[in-house]
Structure formats: C-alpha cells, structure tokens
TrEMBL record:
InterPro entries: VOMI (IPR005515), VOMI_sf (IPR036706)
One of the Pfam families matching this protein, by short name: VOMI
Annotated GO CC locations: extracellular space
SUPFAM superfamilies: Vitelline membrane outer protein-I (VMO-I)
Gene3D superfamilies: Vitelline membrane outer layer protein I (VOMI) (2.100.10.20)
UniProt organism field: Steatornis caripensis (Oilbird)
Name of this chain's protein: VMO1 protein
Length: 170
C-alpha cells in the first residue's frame, strides 16, 4: 500500500519509486536541504529525502532508497529510529503557493517521520510554511519512496525542487 499527505506542493512530476532491498525496511532517513539564499534569490529548501534500509535493526548494510532529488543543498547525517524501530508515517511542512509577482515559490520545506516505537525524526529543513496532517501509518514499516520533483528551470527562474512525497508500506 501507499501512504501520502494532502498538503504537498503542486509543481513538478512524480519521479520513479525506489524500494529498500527485499526483506529490509526503512529505519532511518536523511534530508537534502538548501540553506536560505537571501533576499531576491531563489530558495528551494527541501530538495530530497533518502530512506536508510535495515535488516532486523542492523544499520550496517548501507542500503538506501531515494527516488529523485533536487540539485541544490547538502545531505544531512542519517537520523535513526532507536531500539530497532521502523519508519511508519510522515508529515510535510509546505509553503502554500504565493502566486505573487515577486514571490519566491518554495513548496516542501521540511519533513517529520514517525518511528514504530514512538520517536519522531525531524529533518533540518526551513521554518517556512505550515505542517500538514500526518499520513496514515504503515502497519509494519515503510519500504520505499517516491518524490514529486519540480525540475531545475535554469537562470532567473523560480525553482521549488521537492514538492510532495509518497511512501510504500512493506
């Protein structure tokens, strides 16, 4: 099954889905985030999300699932669910469309992931926008990811990078 939220950004297309290797599940996550660019510059904020896959809570496998990520920003360190927890749900922080002549569209600015054993993992995104409702929860664990990405349009354009997210349940 697929879990999603209702507040994702409206731009771009759904990229390819990517799954954790068979028999593994997502127990960690990292975030690709562009720092604020300053007045009159184009901000993209959240550019990508990478799931870190585990077999039975073992984090040493090094397997990841990513889908498509934007070109800006840097990857954060992985955040892990403690005590063999698994990712089971998420929420997005999204800046609603500004629709102004001089406004800078940003779309998704941060994300939070719920662990099966209670903790919430929050990315290092920006404070712009509002948190939406939580997705439904996967009964067992998250095993895959698909992103909605606005492509890079080039010089003097308004890029938004990551707009929306879907996760696949095991």
């Amino acid at each position: 099954s697929v879990i999603a939220v209702s507040n994702g950004g409206p731009w771009g297309d759904w990229a390819w889905p990517e799954m954790c290797p068979k028999g593994s599940y997502a127990s960690g996550v990292s975030f690709k985030v562009e720092d604020p660019q300053g007045l009159m510059e184009d901000d993209t904020a959240l550019n990508g999300i990478r799931l870190h896959c585990s077999h039975g809570g073992d984090h040493s496998g090094g397997y990841t699932a990513e889908s498509q990520s934007g070109r800006w920003g840097h990857w954060s360190e992985a955040l892990w669910c403690p005590h063999q927890g698994r990712l089971v749900g998420f929420t997005l922080r999204v800046q609603a469309p500004q629709r102004g002549l001089l406004s800078d569209e940003v779309a998704a600015t941060s994300a939070r992931f719920a662990c099966s054993n209670g903790p919430i993992l929050e990315g290092p995104g920006s404070a712009w926008g509002q948190w939406g409702a939580w997705s439904p929860q996967c009964p067992r664990a998250v095993c895959g990811i698909q992103t909605r990405q606005d492509p890079a349009w080039g010089l003097k354009s308004d890029d938004t990078a990551l707009n929306d997210l879907r996760l696949f349940c095991c």
